[in-house]
Specification:
This protein is α/β, with parallel strands linked by helices. It has ten helices and twelve strands. It folds into three domains: 65 residues, Winged helix-like DNA-binding domain superfamily/Winged helix DNA-binding domain (Arc Repressor Mutant, subunit A, Orthogonal Bundle); 113 residues, Periplasmic binding protein-like II (D-Maltodextrin-Binding Protein, domain 2, 3-Layer(aba) Sandwich), CATH 3.40.190; 93 residues, D-Maltodextrin-Binding Protein, domain 2. Strands 4-3-5-12-6 form a five-stranded mixed sheet, sandwiched between helices. Strands 10-7-11 form a three-stranded antiparallel sheet. The chain has a two-stranded antiparallel ribbon with strand order 1-2. The longest helix has 28 residues. It is rod-shaped. It binds 2-phosphoglycolic acid. The site of 2-phosphoglycolic acid (PGA) has 13 residues, from helix 7.
């Protein structure tokens, strides 16, 4: 059957439906010898005769009947597939898979709201996780688009800067350093520190800055969530470095302050990323265009309002 072509199946189906080579040839605008030849080749590929001629009448053999049933199913499925593709082209249906780093969860879901209203037939899956896991997902091509700060090395990717993602030092409002200006970096060595988990991009960026200046801080607590860290800061467990984007809720801002420490903020960016050479689906491309234009404008405005 491997040698059979879709064209041969179409010809066969027409002959079987009309029970006639002549009428099939007319329907398909082919000559009768061409039709006979196609059916003959198909029978050869199947390995059994498909028709038998008794007198002037044409009958399907058992193999022919089986193949006729299979053709009907196949062509039904193909036409369903064609209409699905037509819907996709009109973006009536589809799936979008996104992975974003923890800090982007404060913005991306908001942008998805508007996108989803515009394209209600698109189902969205959004994975929010840390730098290391996003990199793994990118390397194994698990999603359509990734939003991340720290770009993986040695992997060919298409990179599009999306928004600033500055890292700031956060302390409880009652902390004595809150009133100070231009605090020397080494003063942080005297503080109890709350740190994100290994594998976090935030942690790597902080560690890099401290290493460059030969500073080692006392890590009192390690937490895998920006929200949990903010609660711990508010609760007086220590100070930490987090993305400015994590400071979204008014009530939290009453309890937490940004310290004016030298070398801060650490300037970083979010990037929208996908493997170079990946052919984005129509849905993914539409979301990507939305993200880089309207989405970016909304995110910039939201960020500026929050400052
Ligand atoms: P992280 O990444 O969640 O891995 O710390 C956050 C960021 O890089 O902004």
């Amino acid at each position: 059957m491997r040698q059979a072509t879709l064209h041969q199946l179409k010809v066969f189906e027409a002959v079987a439906r009309h029970n006639s080579f002549t009428r099939a040839a007319e329907e398909l605008f082919l000559t009768q010898p061409t039709v006979s030849m196609q059916v003959k080749q198909l029978a050869k590929a199947v390995g059994l005769p498909l028709f038998e001629q008794v007198g002037k009448r044409l009958y399907l053999t058992t193999a022919g009947k089986e193949l006729f049933g299979t053709c009907k199913e196949l062509f039904e499925k193909l036409s369903l597939f064609e209409s699905t593709i037509a819907d996709l082209k009109g973006l009536k249906r589809g799936a979008l898979r996104l992975s974003v780093i923890t800090t982007a969860k404060y913005i991306i879901p908001r942008l998805l709201g508007l996108f989803s209203q515009r394209y209600p037939g698109i189902d969205i899956s959004l994975k929010v996780t840390n730098h290391e896991r996003i990199s793994d997902r990118l390397l194994t091509n698990q999603d359509d688009i990734y939003v991340m700060s720290q770009l993986p090395q040695d992997f060919d990717i298409a990179i599009h800067p999306f928004l600033e993602n500055p890292l700031v030092v956060l302390a409880p409002r009652s902390h004595p350093l809150v009133k100070e200006k231009n605090i020397p970096l080494k003063r942080l060595a005297d503080e109890l520190f709350i740190m994100r988990e290994p594998g976090s991009g935030t942690r790597q960026a902080v560690q890099k800055l401290f290493d460059e200046h030969g500073i080692s801080v006392r890590v009192k607590l390690e937490l895998g969530s920006n929200e949990a860290i903010k609660q711990a800061i508010a609760g007086g467990l220590g100070i930490s470095v987090l993305s400015r984007h994590t400071l979204t809720s008014e009530s939290m801002n009453r309890e937490i302050a940004i310290l004016d420490v030298e070398h801060f903020p650490i300037h970083r960016h979010w990037y929208a990323v996908y493997p170079a050479g990946k052919q984005l689906s129509i849905v993914a491309q539409t979301f990507f265009d939305y993200l880089m234009h309207e989405g970016k404008a909304i995110a910039e405005q939201t960020f500026l309002n929050g400052l």
